[in-house]
Predict the structure.
Amino acid sequence: MHASDSNVMTRDYYVSDGIQGMAYIVPNFNGKKFTGDMVELDLETAKYSTVRIHGIESDFADFYSKSAVEADGVDPYVKETSKSGTDQVIIKRLETLDPDLAGFHGGFSALYNDISYGFLVPYFNGVNHHGKVVRVYCGTYNSSKTDEWEEGTTFREFRTKMTSGEFEEFQQDIDFSSLGEPTAKAPHCQPTTNKLLLFASLLASLQMSLT
Amino acid sequence: MNGKYYFGKVVRVHVHTFDLSSVEVLDLTQKDKRLAGFYGGFATNLQPGNPFTPSANYAYLSPYKNMIGKVNGANTKYTVDGYKDYDIFDNQEAYGGDHLLSNEHGMLVRINLDTFDVAGVDFIDLTTIDPDLKGFSGGFQGGSRGYLVPYSKGFGDYASKVVRFSLLDFSVDSVEVLDLAQKDDQLMGFAGGFSYGTHVVFVPYQNGRQDVNFRQRNQFSILTRVDMNNFDVSGIKTMDVAKIYRKNTPDYPDNNLRGFVSGFPSGSFIYLVPHFNGMWHGKMVRVDMRDFDILSDLQISGESTDLVTGYKGVQELDMGKYYSGLVGFSGGFVRQRPPPVDSFYRVNEKIFNYATGLDKDALTKGVAVQNIMPEGGSAREGEGELDAEGRVGGEGGDSGGEGGTRI
């Protein structure tokens, strides 16, 4: 049978519906300086309290709060006021690891067996175009339990030294310091494939000045 | 751009060991000196064992910009006045004198990841197809095809033509072009994109349309979705997120929801990453894709989007209110999880079994292999359909995002 002889083939898809996920938002420039304040953002708002005002059920939003990082009283879900006991937004200050860890351009996630990683692509930190890749440990999926994650977000920095625009020397500087408290439990999520090697940095030469 | 010049050295490192011993570097300019200055890319996710999968694993780089000069041509560091190691910087031509010009280019590169060497590098100069096919801001996989996001053809000259190409047949003949501006002349200048189900989504950044944008800003707000199975003007649908009533309090539209760089899908939603809307901002937008069609249709017809749909519509979380430094992001991604141990490969096998009776060798082109999602991607079991021309059906979902790299 030739392909053109067949009108439709059925295939299966997996379902991952609803509100879920743990996101990592890549820091770049905050209007004052190139920054390393990465955000870990819990997308699963269902486990937090729900605000319903005038018939509108708002869950991905800012709320009046008593625990603002900056005391303007407006926050996303924070542990003091949410039933989950966790913050929805957790700030990971990468510059506390290394002051050069700022001004990234994009990032991506990857899997190694049950371990989930994120990677931040280095670009310009306000002083130098730098080559310090940050790997974020996003958790280990516990396949013996349904939809459970081992906790903790840690970082590992990979540094390439660039002089005169050329790779002259690689210098390893690894720091497993944990920057934050354990993250919230992650919800069910989608399957993905697993390969040992990741094409880690596709940004062969990127242009940052988008504005 | 590495602070000295636009370069073409691709780096890869082992995900897990993540040390110097696993670092490899591939200098694309050894293949062709024009292969420099890319903006992201993606590695394909075509499953091993699938009879339609190419024999090698490939990655693709999205062409963006480099420098060109009257002396030594592409990626030169030679100025007309005799300098031979001139430091290159963005928008250099604005300063004049050296006759060096920014060069948005269309060199789409494919790299064989199994060999990761110069011999495994192929490229297509998209500008030979159409001179507008240059200056893309990333790419991603959608089914069995790759997509490039149109951004800029030059300073203040924004691009609107989406390129898609076959991941099974890397040739000029497989390249297709869709000009989003044919639908709406504001649809240009996107930054990042991803696939969601049977659609591809483009993230609005800046289109320079000060004549129509809020407070004469360069940045725009029209989220654009294209049907993968109808890669045509009629398959384009839009939602202006700055003019939608939100499921927030207050719920009225927020004109500042514009100027995003990158986004990603998770579950039933897509998320837009805040960058610059005239100010560096932190307004993360979440769109419930179950509402996309109804809200888009209402908006296009000029009717109110202030209604209850039963879903979450459009919502906004301003991280800058939490902490004023949480603005101006450049990307985002969601945590991935492993496949269900006993079912993922079984499903693949099932897919192949559905092809029983089909001539494997006859199905060489155009067959969509559904991408697998990171955490929260959306797909519906049993509802997807794949026809003989490789079109994907159902509410399956796959995803990309900044960098688009998934394994």
